[in-house]
Amino acid sequence: MTIETFELLRPTSLVEASKLLLKYGEDARPIAGGTTLVILMKQRAVHFPYLVDLQEIPDLDQISVEGGWVRIGAMVTHRRVECSPDIQRSLPVLAEACGKVGNIRVRETASVGGNLAHADYRLDPPPALLILGADLVLFGPNGFRTVAIKNFYRGMYETALEPAEILVEVKIPPMPEGSQAAYLKYSSLSANDWPCLGVAALLSLKNGLCHELRLGLSGLAGTPLLIRGLDFVRGQLLTDRLIEDVSKVVNEQISPMSDLRGSEWYKRQMAGVFVQRAIREAEQRLST
């Protein structure tokens, strides 16, 4: 099926791009890698008479490390994140998560910013970015503003982006001292399919006892989730019983939807399994 006719607008600055989005309103959408938007337009699921191409805007395709913080431009592809020595060294869980997006052809094209702004509840990078405490830099008619990723998702395919705003950068602080993290993706159909669920876990230990545990989940609610209320693990041994208690907290906060990848019951069972596996994987990485 072919795409309906549209006009491709090619701004060379963020200001120009925002003005175009403001001018055309609901008839326009920004396009980055286009791996999702183009498919949806081919399927006639959506149509926008104007696409605002972000390719010509400088500096949106950069990865840098400043003061321990990693900065990733919105146009950086998942493949570049996956293969970046800086990210593999400082934020290996993010390289791991980006390396599980679709297949290599998708990762070579799909952009980090486009992925996050699409706001599908099944995406791979958000759980890792949630446990890392990432901030998202947005630009719009009122200039720049920063939103914590935990506050970015408002609902299925809904974000904190205001009209004519563009996601331009992801900022990620250093991982807590003495911590390790893991991301596990479970696909019930095929390895290249949307995940049935994804679980990211960040764990730090002090004197053999839990100091901090963070869990980020995808595919188990209308938005990616950062699990709340895990402070009770602090100062405790990481026993199977403690992980069971963590799984109960997770179960109370998820709201999975039945679909081709599993029923609501099945996804709850798999959530418990993969939360345990992710925590144990992070623990194992701390010991190596």
Any overview of this molecule?
By secondary structure, this protein is an alpha+beta fold. It folds into 3 domains: 47 residues, Uridine Diphospho-n-acetylenolpyruvylglucosamine Reductase, domain 2 (2-Layer Sandwich); 110 residues, Uridine Diphospho-n-acetylenolpyruvylglucosamine Reductase, domain 3, CATH 3.30.465.10; 105 residues, Enolase-like, domain 1, CATH 3.30.390.50. The chain is built from 10 helices and 14 strands. The protein has a 5-stranded antiparallel sheet with strand order 4-5-10-6-7. A 4-stranded antiparallel sheet has the order 11-12-13-14, sandwiched between helices. Strand 4 and strand 5 form a beta hairpin. Helix 5 runs antiparallel to helix 8. The termini are far apart. The model has no long low-confidence stretch (mean pLDDT 93).
